[in-house]
Specification:
- The chain has 331 residues and is an all-alpha fold.
- The protein has helices at residues 3-9, 13-41, 49-74, 82-98, 104-127, 133-152, 163-170, 179-197, 199-209, 211-216, 221-247, 258-270, 280-299, 304-330.
- It is built from 14 helices and no strands.
- Helix 3 (49-74) packs across helix 13 and helix 5 (104-127) runs antiparallel to helix 11.
- The longest helix is centred in the N-terminal third of the chain and has 29 residues, at 13-41.
- Keywords: Cell membrane, Membrane, Transmembrane, Transmembrane helix.
- Pfam families: BPD_transp_2.
Length: 331
């Protein structure tokens, strides 16, 4: 028994109940409180439909990459390659369209398949070679960064981008809603159904909860862990494609910062509604907290460095709340 668990058992039942409620709902309360505070401080700029739509649009890519990362984390692993992979995929899709003159759908399909392949390689390194996932995915991510620079020679690909590709992110094809929001909703919905409503999802959760017990139950743990990495890789690839479409260029390090955002969202999500468990709905709420926080800081003219401070603080708080929820659940 850990010291933290032992200490929690010394608390009164009422105190444990209060801490449990706080651990489960603190992030939601924080999100609502932050929106209310920003709305009160800037009633003309912040609480508007245009601004909220803009926040969701800006958050959409972070939600997609975070959703994929959630699957890797649920199976008990960490994928530190997602940001670097998204940057490579953004450069590659631009190169295939502009330099190789491939049709947009074909280029996107190739990049998504490559994302799956990279995830598969991550899974093989972790499950077959028994390399720690932090080391394995960080090494793979570094290799991907080198490949991105080699492919683009360190120069952004900007000339000759077809309008059809730009409209994937910038267009509003249905009901005036930005396409990225719709894509985000479809991806997140699919991931939620996979994890919460399918037999494979039950296996994913079983492997993350107790790999030894899952193996005794006949589950192919290596296959499930690899699947988690593959889904993470595909979502990273899709994020890279959408980011290049939004920016109108393929830049070698454009998506690197999504790594920290994704981890902050995933760990915030684990402190939401469940006792330290990673899940898709929680990741969405975590990503929205970060997005609305950034939006509020921008509206009030906060300097750029404040965003990094905010994101780092959010990550620390998220891990703390997740640990608190897990300790209480075990007590």
């Amino acid at each position: 028994m850990s010291d933290a668990t032992f200490a929690s058992r010394r608390l009164s039942p009422r105190t444990r109940l209060a801490l449990g409620v706080f651990a489960r709902y603190a992030t939601i309360i924080g999100l609502i409180g932050m929106i209310a505070a920003f709305s009160a401080l800037s009633p003309r700029a912040f609480p508007t439909l245009i601004n909220f739509t803009n926040v969701l649009n800006q958050a959409s890519l972070a939600v997609i990459i975070s959703g994929g990362l959630t699957l890797a984390v649920i199976v008990g692993e960490l994928d530190l390659s997602v940001g670097f992979a998204a940057s490579l995929h953004g450069v590659l899709v631009m190169g295939l369209i502009v330099s190789n003159q491939l049709p947009v759908p074909v280029a996107i399909l190739i990049v998504l398949l490559l994302g799956a392949l990279i995830g598969y390689v991550n899974g093989l390194i972790v499950t077959r070679l028994k390399v720690n996932s932090v080391i394995a995915t960080l090494g793979v991510g570094t290799i991907l960064t080198g490949l991105a620079f080699a492919y683009a020679s360190g120069v952004p690909i900007v000339a000759g981008v077809p309008e059809a590709f730009l409209q994937i992110s910038l267009g509003r094809w249905f009901f005036g809603i930005p396409n990225n929001i719709l894509i985000m909703a479809v991806v997140l919905g699919a991931l939620w159904v996979l994890v919460e409503r399918t037999s494979i999802g039950q296996e994913i959760q079983a492997v993350g909860g107790n790999p030894a017990a899952a193996r005794l139950a006949g589950i192919d743990v290596a296959r499930i862990k690899t699947l988690g990495f593959v889904i993470s890789g595909v979502c990273a690839a899709l994020t890279g494609v959408l980011l290049s479409s939004r920016l109108g260029s393929g830049t070698t390090n454009a998506a690197d910062s999504y790594l920290m955002t994704a981890f902050a969202a995933v760990f915030l999500g684990s402190a939401t509604l469940r006792d330290g468990e990673f899940h898709i709905v929680g990741t969405l709420i975590g990503a929205l907290i970060i997005a609305f926080g950034f939006n509020g800081l921008n509206i009030f003219g906060a300097p750029t460095f404040s965003q990094y401070i905010f994101q780092g603080a959010i990550l620390i708080v998220a891990v703390g709340l997740s640990s608190l929820g897990r300790i209480i659940a075990e007590s």
